[in-house]
Amino acid sequence: MLPPHPALTRALAEWLPRQRWFGGKDGPIDDLAIGTATELHTGDPALHHLVLDVHQNGAIDHYQLLLGVRRELPDRLRHVEIGASTHDAPGDPDSRAVRLYDAAHDPDLTRTLLDELAAGASIGPLRFRHADGARIRTDLTSLPITAEQSNTSLLFGDAYICKLFRRLSRGVNLDLEVNLALTRGGCAHVPAVLGWIELDPGPGTSQGEPVTLGLLSDYLHTGADGWSLAIASVRDWFAHPPPPRDAGWEGAWAELDASAAGGDFAAEAERLGAATAAVHRALADTFGVTLLPAAEVRAMAARMNAELTETCRAVPRLAPHAKSLTGAFLDLAARAEPLAVQRVHGDYHLGQVLRTESGWTLLDFEGEPARTQNERRALAHPLRDVAGMLRSFEYAARFLIAKPGTVPPEPAGRLETRAHAWAARNRAAFCRGYAAAGGPDPAAHSVLIRAFEFEKAVYEVRYEARNRPAWLPVPLKSLAHLTA
Ligand SMILES: Nc1ncnc2c1ncn2[C@@H]1O[C@H](COP(=O)(O)OP(=O)(O)O)[C@@H](O)[C@H]1O
Ligand SMILES: O=P(O)(O)O[C@H]1O[C@H](CO)[C@@H](O[C@H]2O[C@H](CO)[C@@H](O)[C@H](O)[C@H]2O)[C@H](O)[C@H]1O
């Protein structure tokens, strides 16, 4: 039985802001209520599916939680404890304290998800669906992945990955919608969708469409994510001996070429560019392309600038770059041409791509977690994704510098020179691969690329300030370079 709501909501309101995936860290929780509660497994342990209504700043966000309830909490689950509560049922001789925890980390309970997906079950408002022809195994044990994530993903053996969306958005989740359409269209650059979980808002509600709660896909167990591969290459490059100290030393630093690194990433970056162009083509074929009138392009540039102003207010360290950033947005506004827009990835970076034995696969079409649902759904020019990936090369190049003690003790300016050389080489390779595979040539669209890249950098400054303040120097350092 679910513990009494007041005790439960108190514990949840205290626990939620400490979670990596909680999107409302910049303000207090004004109120928290249980929106829906569905019992998925009875006994000890018990499993309850909860949708939490979190009130902040006059708005309500909905978060998904698998709540585990146990009499005793084993050591392996201590790190996900939410709190204790008295399970106080009048007249119940078993009345005593129970322990509440995040059951996404409890394989004894998560196997229920596979059982219900395989059965295509409906439980209360929850619907478990499988893709046409998919046969889902139920004999697998789950393990949560430890990635820096906005959601929580569970690996089931080495066969499936089940992404449980944390902050829920109205209607069909973009990740499901895009992946399902691309899977059905035979696109080789996305993992196949096997099933999904949704919440039926029920008759009589104004928000008719089901809400996507989870997505079960093929787990590409041989894949290595682009971020780890890129960081390995940067580490190797930083360990590469500096130019010999002779008469031409300063000049040698100025012309530093990262191709000398043993773990060069450029060939992979080029292939990634080609895969990106192929996915953009598949998205255009599946969902169509439309022209954004010049007036709307100007409005888009104005929005970018407004976001800059707002972010400078919240993060004053961005202000020294504001003039150059505004200049790029004004250049975009002055373009006076319509823009061909389509469905794109929306939050494209090295952590969203996997290198498998057959090539690069793109993940997570959900868009930027800090954006509203409407903003995420908006069509965009495909070079917006290209700009996202270029930012990611900038991040990868500087990540090790921001982590003290991880690189050889070279003067800071020299490390920045190395970082720039690595980023420049891989940016160029990615753009080459993208254009050669039929994408719009980034070199021929410098105004667009610059505006999109700066827009993303502003987003990153805000994202890091809110979520990972220790990372803030990474986008700021790269901006210093790009706006110099
Ligand atoms: N189908 C898959 N096969 C293998 N690994 C995956 C798969 N889907 C996701 N991953 C791994 O999980 C990580 C997080 O997945 P992602 O969909 O980006 O979640 P989030 O939206 O929470 O950021 C990825 O960076 C990748 O390493
Ligand atoms: O993957 P998510 O959809 O959760 O995206 C959010 O988090 C990302 C970090 O995990 C963040 O990406 C930024 O950091 C990356 C390195 O960790 C870097 O490669 C990206 O270029 C940089 O934007 C992303 O912006 C955010 O939306």
TrEMBL record:
Entry keyword set: ATP-binding, Carbohydrate metabolism, Glycogen biosynthesis, Glycogen metabolism, Kinase, Nucleotide-binding, Transferase
Domain of life, source organism: Bacteria
Enzyme class (EC, first level): transferase
Keyword Nucleotide-binding: yes
Gene3D superfamilies: 3.90.1200.10
Keyword Kinase carried by entry: yes
Biological source species: Actinomadura soli
Protein name per its UniProtKB record: Maltokinase
Stored InterPro entries: Kinase-like_dom_sf, Mak_N_cap
Domain Maltokinase N-terminal cap: 15-106
GO molecular function, one term: kinase activity
A GO biological process held by the record: glycogen biosynthetic process
Family label: Belongs to the aminoglycoside phosphotransferase family.
Pathway: Glycan biosynthesis; glycogen biosynthesis
Enzymatic reactions: D-maltose + ATP = alpha-maltose 1-phosphate + ADP + H(+)
Record-listed E.C. numbers: 2.7.1.175
Complex and partners: Monomer.
